[in-house]
Amino acid sequence: MHFADPLPLRSGASIRAYDLVYETYGELNADKSNAVLVLHALNASHHVAGKYAGQERSEGWWDNMIGPGKPLDTRRFFVIGINNLGSCFGSTGPMHRNPDTGAVYGASFPVVTVEDWVDAQARLLDRLGIHTLAAVMGGSLGGMQALSWTLQYPQRMRHAVVIASAPNLTAENIAFNEVARRAIVTDPDFQGGNFYGAEGQPQTKPKRGLRIARMIGHITYLSDDVMNEKFGRELRGALLREADPAQDAGRAPGTYRYTTQDVEFQIESYLRHQGDKFAEYFDANTYLLITRALDYFDPAREYGGNLSQALARARARFLLVSFTTDWRFSPKRSRELVKALLDNRREVSYAEIDAPHGHDAFLLDDKRYTAVVRAYFDQIAAGLASAGAAP
Amino acid sequence: MHFADPLPLRSGASIRAYDLVYETYGELNADKSNAVLVLHALNASHHVAGKYAGQERSEGWWDNMIGPGKPLDTRRFFVIGINNLGSCFGSTGPMHRNPDTGAVYGASFPVVTVEDWVDAQARLLDRLGIHTLAAVMGGSLGGMQALSWTLQYPQRMRHAVVIASAPNLTAENIAFNEVARRAIVTDPDFQGGNFYGAEGQPQTKPKRGLRIARMIGHITYLSDDVMNEKFGRELRGALLREADPAQDAGRAPGTYRYTTQDVEFQIESYLRHQGDKFAEYFDANTYLLITRALDYFDPAREYGGNLSQALARARARFLLVSFTTDWRFSPKRSRELVKALLDNRREVSYAEIDAPHGHDAFLLDDKRYTAVVRAYFDQIAAGLASAGAAP
């Protein structure tokens, strides 16, 4: 969807003539009351569910949660996924042309915040003719957007589902983001962020930096426990031998190779693979923009750090979910949100799920987790039905 | 001290004609029973205590713990600090010449393990005429060396003081090491590890990679709590204004600058500064070697993972200390060591110190921590005195 009117940004800059890519699933009902807006985190897009025709491995990033018969059931709800500004998955971003200059944005793409994204999303809903959402929903950075929706447009949703999120980032989280950004910015191929040709195609790609950024991210999305269980201290040699006995010939099983630069442990191989994949498809400037949006989000900031005051504007009913082993967005941070909402006499359901997978748990299948989300949306659906039956 | 005999290494390689730099503090007593060997971790050296003449800021890395009247009192003990092979602080390392080829080692410096270091340290003690140590002592990687001493030379020490250590690294720890190594190895200035001139001086220095490595390390040595307390979400602008009001002129106090590449938060400024300092003085090949020694250490490995069996050889009495907020070498890991030692009916004292500083706590002043170490060494000293008084 194209937008010609400029979008004013929190930084004081504005962005004009931008596109937002979105997908919808299910049918909008007659009174337009069954729409659910699903918001994406760092490494995701508008493609939240389903597969593209003829592309077997194209499942949406929340396909286990959203679809016909799934916890967020697209037979009952009209689900909207929007790709955020600054992303590299279709909406206007650093690889596109600045209409004011005709040149590719690169590093000059304006800094966008969670609040800016929400404003852009609201305009898209306006154009779809949807005033009030049944729910806004997101995990991690997506959860921050859902929370911000309840503060920026308190009248425009009945429910907010905020999963594995936080009222702001801790110093440690900012620190991990900063190391990842430094790895990208100091990669010589980053070239100050202006590494695109005239058509927005990268001429050089700061892959070294992107790999490091992804490896750091990956470690922090998992828990120590799940890494020990999945990889432990297992050597790569063991798997090589399984695949091709000749590969590791002449070495006793389980012996070290004694190398500082080559892969020795399985966990190293896994991380390198994740880094390589990510560096192929992700954009470096997008990484900087999205991690900064995470850093900047802090609704309590303008209230001197008083989160209860900051959330006083919210009118939605809330479901919050956190995961015990998530050390990046820990249950403690979700409990801060719960407390601040209860201080304002908001209606809040909160589930703390005992799952081993760390922050990644919000994307994975866990019976108790999906059951909680399913029950919550069943309840919303029942409310819709009775509202529809009312005169 | 120069060693002409080759040192066989666990990798099957050997190293010959090497030097070990060491320092001693206090006086060796007549029966040579009061020697304490202090072992260093990643970013340290033989210079464990005291200052060099005329160099005000040259305190040893454990100067708060070791010296006259300090917990490890050099008026009673003869303390030895040895710089390990592969280091960049004086002992033979990658920046030195391989006597077999005449060329600077660079990336060809052999992989060294904790066990190899202990063997080299034992040879140095042989040359000093010290058979039995009053104690071996170390924190973190130094603690692994102390533990390995009790297994490789069980008759050569009376006590082992193992602080903030672990029986091996978890997958998460290996993962952090691997990301740091990849940052270094993929820095174009690393040049495969052969970046030295003929005299061992770096011609190029992979500073980008070293900075990233240090920033990652720094985050993981601290706790989330102490980072929040020390930096929180404080902006750099606030401090700039304090130092020079003109610097941050025209911006309302506490407002964001909205930047993806420049420093916004204090924590970023702190980490960049730490990275810059480290990149100046540390060697990239040393970083790879030392982190690999950490990865490889795993005495239970040859016992099928059975730590109790692995520690059966130990004869020393033990003091173990861990810190509640240390998530890199957590109390849980120290408790594994305690249990395995108790399984072998070894005498073990164990203190779990409630300190906020994460892994770094082992280098910092904490009354309860230093009191425990002081009491333990007082007890050892009393044992020495009574042994001296015996016929």
Walkthrough of the structure:
2 copies of one chain form a homodimer. Chain A is α/β, with parallel strands linked by helices and 391 residues long. Chain A is 36% helix and 14% strand. Chain A contains 11 helices and 13 strands. In chain A, strands 5-9-6-10-11-12-13 form a 7-stranded mixed sheet, with helices on both faces. Chain A has a two-stranded antiparallel sheet with strand order 1-4. In chain A, α10 links the parallel β12 (317-323) and β13 (348-353). In chain A, α1 crosses α2 (141-152), α3 packs antiparallel against α4 (207-221) and α3 packs antiparallel against α8 (284-296). The longest helix of chain A is centred in the last third of the chain and has 23 residues, at 367-389. Chain A starts with a strand and ends with a helix. The model of chain A has no long low-confidence stretch (mean pLDDT 95). Chains A and B meet through α3, α4, α5, α7 and α8 of A and α3, α4, α5, α7 and α8 of B.
Query: What gyration radius of chain A follows from the Cα positions, in whole Å?
Result: 22 Å
Q: What would you call the structural class of chain A? A: alpha/beta
Percentage of residues assigned to helices of chain A: 25-40%
Number of strands of chain A: 13
Q: In what range is the share of β-strand residues of chain A? A: 5-15%
| Cα distance spanning the termini of chain A | 35 Å
Q: What is the general shape of chain A?
A: globular
The largest interface is: A-B, 61 and 61 residues
Q: Which runs of chain A of at least 5 residues are low in confidence (pLDDT < 50)?
A: none
Q: From the structure provided, what is the oligomeric state, counting identical versus distinct chains?
A: homodimer
* Sequence of secondary-structure elements of chain A: EEEEEEEEEHEHEHHHHHHHEHEH
- Largest sheet properties of chain A: 7 strands, mixed
